[in-house]
Design a protein that fits this description.
Elements: H1 3-15, H2 24-34, H3 39-45, H4 49-54, H5 58-62, H6 84-87, H7 92-99, H8 101-107, H9 110-127, H10 130-147, H11 167-179, H12 196-208, H13 211-222, H14 227-230, E1 231-236, E2 239-244, H15 246-255, H16 259-281
Antiparallel strand pairs: 1-2
Helix pairs in contact: 2-16, 7-8, 9-10, 9-12, 9-16, 10-16, 11-15
Length: 311
């Protein structure tokens, strides 16, 4: 392998780091949410915890295979101006009437997509459809997790507008990979959500309020780290890749006052609450009799013509 080819590979994984580490945080968040469920639900979810964990990544896989999937993972609030959360209708049809569906999809439909998935999960509980319950639970966990990531709420989602390309994967992939083993991720028992749609928007609002700190602290730290201190090289699948160094990663997490850990915990609590609420809204069906094979993993065939932003 030539030196120039290795350099290209390293640069690619520097810009898109989440592609080489899989989706560790999403899987961990879904897994931890299972342990917050009440006995009536944990007896159903626990035997399928591996499915819930592994399939947490399916929505990201679909981004490259299914038209209309990519925009479900984010919402660019800043594209609507400073008062986005005041002018954006919470309800989908009201938002379509005000902005048109094409406009909404171009700027991300994360909050509405998450709520629709929640409604579909409720229906799956009503029908006691085991495969649908598990598939939609995994999907809902992914979408709610995304909406708790500050960089999923802004047009500057990867620092590309501020000369900080790579910060997205740094925040949501590199930090959890290096530090999550020391995170305290127990969030207590799931509780009922009285107003799910409003709760989703509150989570988006909270995440978006942290965008400035995500960017500013990284920029300030960069000024105090030389390039060879900020980055290091690691061997991944027999390929040498450029990554954020452990020292820089730990300094960033500390500067953010453990923000990544807090947002992971918020995601875990929210997911458990929403699974539980869907079950309650479905009439608290008895799931103990559900048996049978779980449907095979979806077959995701990448479509090269799909060009999606790298979250």
């Amino acid at each position: 392998m030539t030196g120039s080819f290795i350099l290209i590979i390293c640069q690619f994984f520097y810009f898109y780091p989440s592609l080489i580490w899989g989706f560790y945080a999403h899987s961990l968040i879904n897994r931890m949410a299972v342990y917050s469920l009440p006995p009536e639900l944990i007896q159903f979810y626990k035997p399928h915890i591996q499915y819930i964990t592994e399939n947490a990544v399916n929505p990201d896989k679909r981004r490259y295979a299914v038209v209309g999937e990519a925009e479900k993972h984010f919402i660019d609030l800043d594209q609507y101006g400073e008062n986005a959360l005041e002018i954006l209708p919470e309800y989908w049809f009201d938002a379509v009437e005000k902005f048109t569906e094409d406009t909404l999809r171009a700027k991300g439909i994360g909050p509405w997509a998450a709520y629709l998935t929640f409604q579909n999960l409720t229906k799956a509980f009503e029908e006691k459809n085991q495969s649908a319950i598990l598939r939609l639970s995994a999907d809902l966990g992914h979408y709610l997790g995304d909406l708790n990531v500050p960089l999923h709420t802004t047009e500057n989602y990867n620092g590309q507008l501020t000369g900080q390309v790579g910060i997205h994967g740094f925040w949501e992939s590199r930090i959890p990979e290096l530090m999550a083993a020391d995170f305290s991720l127990w969030v207590g028992k799931a509780s009922y959500v009285e107003k799910p749609q409003q709760a989703i928007w509150e989570a988006v609002k909270h995440a978006h309020s942290q965008v400035d700190s995500v960017l500013i602290f990284e920029k300030n730290l960069t000024a105090n780290f030389s390039s060879d201190q900020k980055f290091s090289f690691e061997e991944r699948n027999q390929i040498t890749v450029r990554v954020y160094s452990k020292e820089f990663t730990e300094a960033y997490a500390s500067a953010l006052d453990q923000q990544v850990e807090r947002q992971m915990k918020r995601s875990i609590k929210m997911i458990a609450d929403f699974w539980y609420t869907a079950w309650v809204n479905a009439g608290q069906p008895d799931l103990s009799s559900l048996q049978g094979e779980i449907e095979e993993d979806e077959d995701f065939k990448t479509k090269p013509e799909l060009k999606v932003r790298e979250h």
